Amino acid sequence: MRKTTFIQAVNEAMRDEMRRDESVFLIGEDIGHYGGLFRVTRNLMEEFGERRVIDTPISEQGFMGMAVGAAMVGLRPIVELMYMDFFLVCADQIFNQAAKMHYMTGGLLHVPMVIRGQQGGGKRYGSQHSSSVESTFAQFPGIKVVAPATPYDAKGLLISAIRDDNPVLFLEHKMLYFTRGDMPDAEEEYTVPIGKADIKREGKDLTIATFSYTLLQALEAAEELKAEHGIDIEVVDLRSITPLDMETVLTSVAKTGRLLAVHESQANAGIGAEIVARAYEEAPYLLKAPARRLGMAPASIPVSKPLEEELLPWKTNIKAAVLEMMR
Amino acid sequence: MRKTTFIQAVNEAMRDEMRRDESVFLIGEDIGHYGGLFRVTRNLMEEFGERRVIDTPISEQGFMGMAVGAAMVGLRPIVELMYMDFFLVCADQIFNQAAKMHYMTGGLLHVPMVIRGQQGGGKRYGSQHSSSVESTFAQFPGIKVVAPATPYDAKGLLISAIRDDNPVLFLEHKMLYFTRGDMPDAEEEYTVPIGKADIKREGKDLTIATFSYTLLQALEAAEELKAEHGIDIEVVDLRSITPLDMETVLTSVAKTGRLLAVHESQANAGIGAEIVARAYEEAPYLLKAPARRLGMAPASIPVSKPLEEELLPWKTNIKAAVLEMMR
Amino acid sequence: MAEPSLKASVPSAKAAVAEPAAVLSTEQLLPMYRMMFLIRRVEESLLELAESGKIGGAMHTAIGHEGAAVGMAAALRKDDYLTCTYRGHHHSLARGMDPKRAICEVLGKAPGFAKGKGGSMHFLDPSLGLMGANGIVGAQVPHAAGMALASKIRGEDRIAITFFGDGALYQGLMHETFNMAQKWKLPVIFYCENNRYSEMTPISRTSSVSDIYQFVRAYGMESVQIDGNDVEVVYDAISKAAERARAGEGPTFIEGVTYRLAGHMAGDLETYRTAEEIEMQRAYEPLTQLHQKLLDRGVSEEELNKIRAEVEEEVQEAVEYALEAPWPDIAEAYTDVYKV
Amino acid sequence: MAEPSLKASVPSAKAAVAEPAAVLSTEQLLPMYRMMFLIRRVEESLLELAESGKIGGAMHTAIGHEGAAVGMAAALRKDDYLTCTYRGHHHSLARGMDPKRAICEVLGKAPGFAKGKGGSMHFLDPSLGLMGANGIVGAQVPHAAGMALASKIRGEDRIAITFFGDGALYQGLMHETFNMAQKWKLPVIFYCENNRYSEMTPISRTSSVSDIYQFVRAYGMESVQIDGNDVEVVYDAISKAAERARAGEGPTFIEGVTYRLAGHMAGDLETYRTAEEIEMQRAYEPLTQLHQKLLDRGVSEEELNKIRAEVEEEVQEAVEYALEAPWPDIAEAYTDVYKV
Ligand SMILES: Cc1ncc(C[n+]2csc(CCOP(=O)(O)OP(=O)(O)O)c2C)c(N)n1
Ligand SMILES: Cc1ncc(C[n+]2csc(CCOP(=O)(O)OP(=O)(O)O)c2C)c(N)n1
Ligand SMILES: [Mg+2]
Ligand SMILES: [Mg+2]
């Protein structure tokens, strides 16, 4: 066993798959010579050359569209969006094109591509560089969405995403980049399946279903709730947002009787509301108390530190929500 | 009293406001000389001239951005998107710019603009010309969303939208365009407030909360359910999606004990899931049976008529959902 | 914001001939004539079906644009990639799509190449290099560039061509694509079917670019303006561009001047142009031009009549086949969301 | 996809001088020198604060770009609209923003002009015509065109200017905006601060356009290339463009060649360029140029020292003020979502 950072895990997944499969290539801004603004693609241009690691101009629509085209003929592009907020600049290529292609061609074409990059608040980047996008992507069938919280899951899920025959959004949270975690030896190949949740903490009083950075926040909240109030939380790491592993969530709720979904994208019409709606659709009888969700408050993310902290659905807000549910 | 079509109502609202307020202008594709692909802006260029009814090239990002700029300095642009699906082409200007402007400038600027156009399925336009977008817009605070179902509400809500100091999305369903409804005399000024739902049918067994074309479908379903099964449905016309009038919904649920939210945008992380989540947040004790939502099935809209009909959350699907809930 | 005279904005297509060409033999031209007439008749039949309510949504015919499609099919290899707009019946038929399956698709019937899910705006057949028509103006253009990039990454010599309209030039992503394609010398051909209208708006009303083919000069991209109604001229221009692309010399932009003889889409009121304007353009339209050219080369009217009669029959059969074809199974509504 | 020599891609800014200009009097230049130095010192102080961890997120300084901002402020009216990029401290200070409130905003403090919500990337003050910096590359450009459109609709003679980088030219919406602005003869000035880098990538690596100012020629738009480091040259070019705009002659594109002396943003590793390259550019940077020009015109080093000392004190005070300023009230997190 060794420990790596989240950045290193993502980097390794791309490197390993590029070694294994000639059809994988990278495209994005500042990813080649510089190695990526967040250094996630470092050394890859050196190993794979400019043919497979392509520095682009600031033309997200154009290069996202080119990636879609390359994927339509069987290559496996990995597109970096420097900040996930920029998906709005190239949203047509993602949703009207990549996500719908398989369906509207009656299955004749498919688009095996990965869109990856960092998102999220906590570092004072403000309104246009801190959004979390998973709930918006969840509204478009045809694209899968994954958001790992640990280096191990990051590497395994990214490999699965690259090998998947559909467009997959791979979300990295900027607060996770320098976190470290256990990893198998570099040579040991493994994957983490898309669509499979994982229980990261066992408990019996309440289930928190979450993913990405709010998973770490939920784990911290769980420890403090245990210490301070004796509340025993089970934390389910969804890892995938589309498809959603409701089975694991409901198995947990069968034990705890309480469900809180937490995510950093907007609460309104967010994936948390979806989880609540599905719980009532699929197994309402399991719930001892009303299921709840906690997402980003209805505002965009401000630069000012205390304001940003107030709004994010992090530890303090998670604890408050749990305490309310346990009343 | 007179009767007009939905198209006529929308057209009148623009005409009246342009007469009243010099700062209102229209911008979009084919809206001037031709009068709009769906003829919603007909005669307006003739009355107000090319200075206030601007035919653009196919440059949605550019003209949406220009509308944002003009609104930032106090004009009141009404932007037509020919098909709502095209918001994906100019999504950055809508969400990162118009919607966030007031917040990220600490209130120094605001963006009084209306984005309007038609959306929805039922006419075999296929995957890229039939989407319903209200749930996606609901995920972005800072923009309001309205979707009237009758000519009366259309005119009154569009006038409110034009006078509102925030960006407002005004949704017209292509199936509604030629429906007719009662209207006050043309000279009689009235508005319908944004954020206020309206009970379109009273009933005691189950509340359907919906809007736009699915409202008509729900009303038909209600009549048939009454006739065939003696089930008495209350139909709440939300009219606004953001802000959402949960008070009216919950008042109705207090009477019926059952809630079904219906919309044509995707079910997954849709506004229906939001309504369910809020019902459990705000008044779980009112519910005699689990609240449900019905949205578009997870596929994009196919051209083939029977396939399209299968997927849309229209009468047949609404009836099936109600019958399941009443079991 | 003054409106220029509509007349002035519609130059004769003839005026745009870059160079007269007589590059194809009569033997080569005859099947092209056949194909051009077939496309014409399929589309006229589709318009009739649309009028009778059998076709919903947005259906755009390419009546008057056939020269671009038929010239292209003769100039390119079967495995070269092609993407195009919602106005894409002609390219697909020219590349060999079965009219039966084409009409079925427009009607939403099960034998349609996409099971009726895609319809008129999404013609494709990957086995013929047809990688998809697109309902979003301009969206198909980076796709073709991406396919050209794929060829380059793989070291293959398949090239890509993409068709778009004059109105599409004002979608920003076109411009993003031009820059990258030129910078990376991608083997892609950008073919603009300039029919002088963007839906119901004459392009001169919204464009500040006077010569469309000059548009890409800032990028240093090779570009030409041609008579897109003369199938030989089209063949010649695309052949040269393909040669450049395969030789690694990068993209070419072709402005093929043409004219749309039917409405923008089925149901278009056509209040934005006069009957005279359309009439004037009939003299230059591709089928008339090729017809005259063949007569000039000594082909008999009789022989052409025979070809047309055969085509009439084929199209008639295809329409009947499609009308009787079954609807897709309802279960298909839920398939093809994800590739499994 | 070969990488051109980096050296070759960085021409001396001097080489780009369109015409030497001596259009401003010494009396006019002295306050401009003061302002330029103030901007420089504010930004250097901000970099220090960022290094000490007091500033989060993305902070971009305009060290080396001051010429564009100070020349602009002298050339335009106070009520002319301005939009710019995330790299927008210099324009705002040049137009008269109080350094205290500017620094507070970057730190997220309550007295910031936007209560600390917008931060470094969203500088604005509508009362000074500052209509907003923007975090999305290119997004502010149609905003300015829209403001110009508003002036035109209202029949006012306020014009708009927008600043953007060389890298922004490859965002499609720029191109959409250029076409409409030219077509409608909008009173707007497009000013490209060409610092030869798009973040960490030299523009020559991703652009196929060799002369940026030629970029808009396809639209028939007036365009010039100037030494963006010479404040008089900038003043002159913007004055002329403003005159054209106010006279109803439409937009002008100005390429102001410049160089960014600091990193792209605080924390930039700057592995993509050499110390020599930066050193070479120091000789041409705006402050050095203006300093020398004033000495040449007979201003004493002493007088300039005095100006600088005053500025040092002002900036020092502003920093202290900002560090001690209160955080915004927590309730502010929830306000300003909708205008009520
Ligand atoms: C992004 C986008 N905007 C608008 C439309 C609606 N629309 C469809 S075709 C068309 C006109 C296109 O004109 P042109 O590019 O000249 O092609 P033509 O139809 O003349 O062949 C428009 C505006 C669309 N499909 N996509
Ligand atoms: C749409 C979008 N894509 C990418 C970015 C990230 N980004 C911020 S600045 C920048 C480089 C801009 O270069 P240029 O336009 O030359 O301006 P400069 O920073 O040199 O002043 C990039 C890529 C962004 N903010 N927005
Ligand atoms: Mg056209
Ligand atoms: Mg730059």
Rg calc of chain A: 19 Å
Strand content of chain A: 15-25%
- Small-molecule components bound: thiamine diphosphate, magnesium ion
For the largest beta sheet of chain C, what order do the strands appear in spatially?
2-1-3-4-8-7
- Oligomer category: heterotetramer
Main sheet overview of chain A? 7 strands, mixed
Spans of chain C with pLDDT under 50 lasting ≥5 residues?
Answer: 1-18
Helix and strand sequence of chain C: HHEHHEHEHEEEEHEHHH
Explain how this protein is built:
The complex is a heterotetramer, with 2 copies of chain A (327 residues) and 2 copies of chain C (340 residues). By secondary structure, chain A is α/β, with parallel strands linked by helices. Chain A is built from 11 helices and 14 strands. Chain A has helices spanning 6-20, 44-52, 60-72, 91-104, 134-138, 151-163, 213-229, 246-256, 271-282, 305-311, 315-326, and strands spanning 2-5, 24-28, 53-55, 76-83, 114-119, 144-146, 168-173, 180-183, 198-201, 206-210, 233-237, 240-242, 259-266, 292-296. In chain A, the strands form 3 sheets. Chain A has a 7-stranded mixed sheet with strand order 3-2-4-5-7-6-12, with helices on both faces. In chain A, α7 (213-229) packs across α11 (315-326). Chain A is globular, with a radius of gyration of 19 Å. Chain A starts with a strand and ends with a helix. In chain C, α1 (26-51) runs antiparallel to α9 and α1 (26-51) packs parallel to α10. Chain C has 10 helices and 8 strands. In chain C, β5 (197-198) and β6 form a beta hairpin. With 340 residues, chain C is an alpha/beta fold. The model of chain C is unreliable at 1-18 (pLDDT under 50). In chain C, the strands form 2 sheets. In chain C, strands 2-1-3-4-8-7 form a 6-stranded parallel sheet, with helices on both faces. Chains A and B meet through α4, α5 and α9 of A and α4, α5 and α9 of B. One magnesium ion binds at residues 165-167, 195, 197-198 of chain C.
